[in-house]
Amino acid sequence: MIETLHIYHTNDLHSHFDRWPKITKYITEMRQLHKQNHEEMLLLDIGDHIDRFHPISEASHGKINVELLNQLQYDYATIGNNEGITMSYEHLDTLYDNAEFKVLLANLFDRNGNLPNWAKPYDIHVLPSGFRIGIIGLTVHYIALYKLLGWNIKNPLVVLQETLDELKDKTDMILLMSHLGINDDEQIAREFPEVDVLLGAHTHHLFEEGKRINNTLLCCAQKYGNYIGHVTLKIDTEQKKLFESTAAVISTKSLPESTETNEILSQYLEESTQVLQNDVIAKIKQPLKSDWFSETSFSRLLAQVLREWCEGDISMVNAGLLLDSLPIGYVTREDLHRICPHPINPCKVWLKGDELKEIILQANTEEMVNLKIKGLGFRGEVMGKMVYDGVEIETTKLSDGLNHITDIKINGHELEPDRTYSIATVDMFTFGLLFPGIRDAKDKKYFMPELLRDLLAEKIKEIGQMV
Length: 467
Hints:
Layout: E1 2-10, H1 20-36, E2 40-45, H2 55-60, H3 63-71, E3 76-77, H4 81-85, H5 89-95, E4 102-103, E5 108-109, E6 122-126, E7 132-139, H6 143-149, E8 152-153, H7 156-167, E9 173-179, H8 182-191, E10 197-200, E11 211-213, E12 216-219, E13 227-236, E14 241-251, H9 259-277, E15 280-284, H10 297-310, E16 314-318, E17 329-332, H11 333-339, E18 346-352, H12 353-363, H13 366-369, E19 386-389, E20 391-397, E21 403-410, E22 413-414, E23 420-426, H14 436-439, E24 444-446, H15 452-463
Parallel strand pairs: 1-2, 2-3, 3-4, 7-9, 9-10, 10-12, 16-23
Antiparallel strand pairs: 1-13, 5-8, 6-7, 11-12, 13-14, 15-17, 16-19, 18-23, 18-24, 20-21, 21-22
Helix pairs in contact: 1-9, 9-11, 10-15
């Protein structure tokens, strides 16, 4: 006898709720269809459903995201880095208090070295025929960042081997929920033949028909709810054996929407915005102007508070992080969230003077100022002008018509090539390809869980009139 299981999966929604009404309508209809056909169905989320750039997620600390998963009757979820390292220890530890689905996460441990009480390392899902599916959850191991927050994260590949050893002879197949990224996923497929199906996330890749490496079917549905993943499993119930697995994705662009879900989201947004607007930080007597392409009072304030917070010799921060200005009057949490929505933390790096000079020269180029950025926590449009505190730069317009840096002073003194300076900056510069000199610095210190808007709030309280 053949038993069919349909597995639907989402990943990296990042609180882009515009496609959520389409997802809810489609999944609801598919659930009804499979029930009519006497077929089993599972619904899984592979992490980064939450992103604090959105007012709904910011105001509720992600709990409304959990409620949305409840409403659509998800069976399982794991966490991504946005759940894991953009919230405080306490907020993550209480995030799933009301979850009606199982959170699977094998490689995260609490302050005492125990698995958190809201998660299980794996679950054995038993189909009506008795066929046993071992489902495991893993998330990307940003060791230093989790440690700063109070969590202990372990190497996912080591934990995977331990978990597979534990599940040996207890299951008929293995499904892995992996918020690790495509490189780790492909390594797992090559090195862990026990994994039959791997549902991926984190690197936002798209496998329209899956990708098979050895015994493993790799799947991923890109990002932002643009696609829904669908895996179909055919099971021989007599031999208790998976004999066919296929993958597909459904583009949500042209799908019809759920009117009810639209109304629910509108209500959530109204309530969340009100919560943020009611949180008044201070009253300012002078406007704070923002301009992505020039230094302003607002960008100077951000550079100043960044340097003070991190106790750096200097600070550097790109003006594109401030999406709008603040007029005279009351400043609320909603204002700062709208203007600085990025889940970006302060950090400090140590560089030699000659390395710092090269970074300043690079940051001053037209290409870098106008660079459009996606990812790394950035939720704006362009990099913008680099703004400093503690750095004086002299420029001269040369024959090419461009301004070139001719002199750099650090706190009033000539930059010393062999001296080590501490630079207060933003954590997005320590990832990716923007500034390899900062990314590759040996000494880094991250400040968590405070985001840039939290630093701005403290500074505005200081300069403004308390209310």
